[in-house]
Amino acid sequence: MPWPASVSVQPGAVAIGSGFSVSVSGGGATDGRVTAAVERIFERLTRQTGIPLLPRVAAAGQSATLTIVVESKDHGAPQRLGDDERYSLECSNGRVRISADRPLGVLRGIETFLQLVQENTSSTEVGSKGAGSAGAGSTDAGSAGASGATAAGFSVPDVTIRDEPRFEWRGLSLDVSRHFIPVEGVRRTLDGMAAVKLNVLHWHLSDDQGFRIESKKYPRLAQEGSDGMYYTQAEVRGMIAYARERGIRIVPEFDMPGHAASWLPGYPQLGTHAPPYQIVRGAGIFGSLIDPTKESTYKFLDGFVGEMAKLFPDEYFHIGGDEVDPKEWNQNTRIRAFMAAHRLADGAALQTYFNQRLLKIVTRHHKHMEGWDEVLTPGLPKSVVIQSWRGQESLWQAAREGYQGLLSAGYYLDLMQPASKHYAVDPMKLPQETIERLQKKNAPIPGALTPEQQKLILGGEAAMWEELATAENLDAKLWPRLAAIAERFWSPESVTDPVSMYQRMAVTNRWLEWLGLTQRSSLELMRMRLAGDLPVGPLDEFASVMEPVKGYARHAERYDIFVPFNRLVDAIPPESNGAREFREEVDRYLALPQGQRDGAALRKRLTEWGQNIDRVRPMLQTETLLSENLAAADALAVLCRAGEEALGYLDAGGSGGAAASGGAPGDWKARTQTAVAEAAKRKGDLLIQIAPGVEKLVDAVAGPGVQAPKETGEDDQ
Amino acid sequence: MPWPASVSVQPGAVAIGSGFSVSVSGGGATDGRVTAAVERIFERLTRQTGIPLLPRVAAAGQSATLTIVVESKDHGAPQRLGDDERYSLECSNGRVRISADRPLGVLRGIETFLQLVQENTSSTEVGSKGAGSAGAGSTDAGSAGASGATAAGFSVPDVTIRDEPRFEWRGLSLDVSRHFIPVEGVRRTLDGMAAVKLNVLHWHLSDDQGFRIESKKYPRLAQEGSDGMYYTQAEVRGMIAYARERGIRIVPEFDMPGHAASWLPGYPQLGTHAPPYQIVRGAGIFGSLIDPTKESTYKFLDGFVGEMAKLFPDEYFHIGGDEVDPKEWNQNTRIRAFMAAHRLADGAALQTYFNQRLLKIVTRHHKHMEGWDEVLTPGLPKSVVIQSWRGQESLWQAAREGYQGLLSAGYYLDLMQPASKHYAVDPMKLPQETIERLQKKNAPIPGALTPEQQKLILGGEAAMWEELATAENLDAKLWPRLAAIAERFWSPESVTDPVSMYQRMAVTNRWLEWLGLTQRSSLELMRMRLAGDLPVGPLDEFASVMEPVKGYARHAERYDIFVPFNRLVDAIPPESNGAREFREEVDRYLALPQGQRDGAALRKRLTEWGQNIDRVRPMLQTETLLSENLAAADALAVLCRAGEEALGYLDAGGSGGAAASGGAPGDWKARTQTAVAEAAKRKGDLLIQIAPGVEKLVDAVAGPGVQAPKETGEDDQ
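Above: the input entities. Below: the structure tokens describing the complete assembly.
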């Protein structure tokens, strides 16, 4: 994952043992990124396999388990949009070969290779030839396995892959302002991004709640605007180098003129009114704007952009530009006078004026400007790249007007949506909801883009905003769902099957752990904290069918940056696999004709979840941070019982429909539907995600039921 | 943990919320170690509680949740043996106060404070006054809890503690030669050590299998002797600073003249014969010795020790000196001639000659020399510190002769012994085994040391040798057992109850996870690797009653440094809590009079373990690295069944002894005893640690049994 452009699998496999070695040849063999990547192979294979590998790099031409051939070196400049990422990978006859024109392709191919390494199972046919199984490797198995059996150990399957990305710009927009993410967290994120072949980290470095980077020229930006939580320039340079080694560009964003409150405590002259200014502690859209009417603002920004343009080598520079509430401008006499004098009709016009001044500064410092949808106003030069949080309509409109663009709408990981929902979003396809909305309004449905216009769609970016996430659970908010989005950006348009995606995502999710990502372990620690001195097992099982409320609904009664993020809602993944699998199994069960159904497996799960409630309840009663979840426990008990009863009637033949031959007694169905509908509602900040499956089971039982539309937990968004 | 010298607990607690603040005052308030430690409090509390804390350091005298008073600064020199570590800690009236004469005491007190922070339970009485619960803190609980109930959140109990260490030298000897431990691994270890108040990292930097530190003067030591796996001097300096910040001294060890094979590939002139030399890949005692007869050897060592003495500021310098097999010397004509000329009767005499030359060098570079037992030979100056791997007899003998000493015998964590076994070892008490051995030989039992001699026992060091451990599972080999040893070194001699120790160790073990230690998560990842694409749950449960074979018995058929460490035996903790608790429960059950026994809980556990075998078996059959454990699964099934049957008879009143009123049919007991004895034997590299408990149950059933002595798994050591 992401699935390659072309794959063919053959029987057989290449053994990976302690004799594993690599050779590198071709004009690009001495490229720094290639040699660093080769070193990392050994470390990572050691972690993946538990075999202590010596870094054996064979001379070019010498026989090795993995041969890397790279045609030529990189251009010397920073990685650019459109740099060649193609590679091919061939495993056969006991050897692996990665070929690429450029170092970037080698990096992508190595990730594919590492992802293919798997433990042998009894059915693995490992070839007897080849370097991987030679030497010390052959005795790796220790005492296992009689002769004739597959050796204990690891291998990659025989396979031929030709691969290249669908989109050139495959990014993650990472907010480090609302909650600061320390250096290690960003590095881990880069590791994961490289593993799934993303190539742009869009680093959202300033917002109302914090200015997260040191400026040597304007030191008070970070000093007064960050509570001491910011990156030094040395750390930033280190991060850029780290990203580059992994084939990832870093595009900085400094959001202006809105979302700018954190600039102002240190430099109040940038604002519209007299000091004092304070960093914002809440979340939302705030009024503290930069004053676009003063010449001194542009002098400051020229100095600042110039400094940052030197620090960040990437060709693109993101100026934000989103969500400006012009109230503060409109209420200011001086600014109103300026607008009148310059014939600027409203706040939007003033923002366009600001953007055009800013564009000149950005351009003078040799960068392409990038901004969110709102920067697209009449007269905007075509060199600006539009990042769309509004959707395909907005993105396509920009393309029709000749602007390059990126899609972020539909890829907001902080909204806690299931991976399948993001996976279904394609920058090149109008979503069904959009079409329906337009049809309802009798508005025209946008036609397809021309091939020229299509080329302007550079790709997309997932977005992770940090209002409701912290450094502690960041990984769990990103992974594994980001892998599904990465596949959307890399793989052919035709790769869309969510069933296959979920299967492969589960494997990828485990694989990512070897990189040190903490999506599983960090949440487990958080649950251990909640469990206090009690064993965490029952809480884990209880939580396994829960999901956080969607969108920004968590903890609505208090909503600021210093709220503790230590509740059960913070300690569970955005998507419950257990609940999803249960719902899928319900669908399969109900799809079978009556008489062929066997509800034993479903019933077993419900019984286990139900019995676990008695184990978890004492903990919910004792541990103060857990007590708010007692209502969810009660509701889960109702759902489990209802589901078990429904299965009893259905197995016995009491299916709904014309052929019903049994059925539940009296008012069971109506009574149960009412109880289940109540239990299915949001409980605190938790959704019990087996509820829709249970509802289907109850509805399928024969007998008179309730007619009213049911509420199945939280609506999206 | 470690338990303080004096504790008294009162009802009540101090709330720890998002208003938490610290003030520091006294002559030592600006000491670098104190200010760094205060910064870490906020980070660590954030991790422990999930509350994003701003680093609020109040001015001296201002009201704060935690007040730190430190009398005076440190002496400027490196931390020294005997530096004052006393502190007192008082929690009452909503405030916490740590007082200490010196910064080191503050560090120790902060660890105690952090360890006291716990989630409120429904019975916590949090005081209503005080800074901790003021301001934003009071709404932390979010929606939880009706008024009157304990607020959801965290607190420290009201308590008065006066604390100081029993021993001045409380160390861990860490081998990084057999398997290299990267910088992060050593840092994590230092974090954990500081948390349990250990104060010496004895860094075993060279051995036959690798020379792990850069020498600028002799660069080929690391270049040719480490496979590229070594610490640069910059890394070492960073580590020393990191340790110092945490109140830990670092004592380097360079093992000479044996265990020295890794010196020789780069500098063969140090050896006894002509090149080539190679790093040793196996494990054990090897012949490659330094040649003590050449003057050039001492010139080299003077240069090397001089360089290292500058790099490591500690006053002590460990020269190893253990396990010299003099064969290589005795077989060398030139060396034999030297020995004859200098009247050196044998290898031991030659080693003494070497040690005395080396001692002059070490002394010239202003260090105290330290060595293992073997360096103690007649004529050794009293300034040398003896580290005893042989035992109290040897240590006490050294003390009687006037040498300072440390005990390491009994504290070898790599032997996979239970924590209780290490916990029972006391440097000041002769072990029962030693007494019995001496009695058997009719040898005199050493009398108590005089108070003067007792003072020469500086403390002890746990030892972690890395033949059978890797960077991946290091944490699990160290933790939590090292916490029990740390308590032995810190706490009063009278603190010896293993039941209390195990209870507190479980809490400490969880607490250590917030420091980033990976004793749980790393093994879980290893088991996930073994489980391949299958869910790991059944493997976890199966493994939960297993322990690795003890001592150095693992993987005896192939025993070198590049053996994969990816088998189930490598992925389980040295001590099974589940099995220990089962055995304890069996003892409690059998201690009850017949008729009062209820085996339901025991039977339930056995049933669950037994049923899980059917879930884990397909995995053992499919995954090649797991197939060697099928025999253990079969044996576990036998044990579970036998235990369940025995409980059935016992519950029904069939207890052994005179009062037996029932009993098992016919030959059940003898047959089952035989089967259980077979199942209890080592299975591959695993021990099924519920076996002794099951054996007791079966033995307790009335009826004719087997008389033969039983084999209960592996003998210790």
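Note for the figure: Residues 129-148, 655-661, 713-717 of chain B have pLDDT under 50 and may be disordered.
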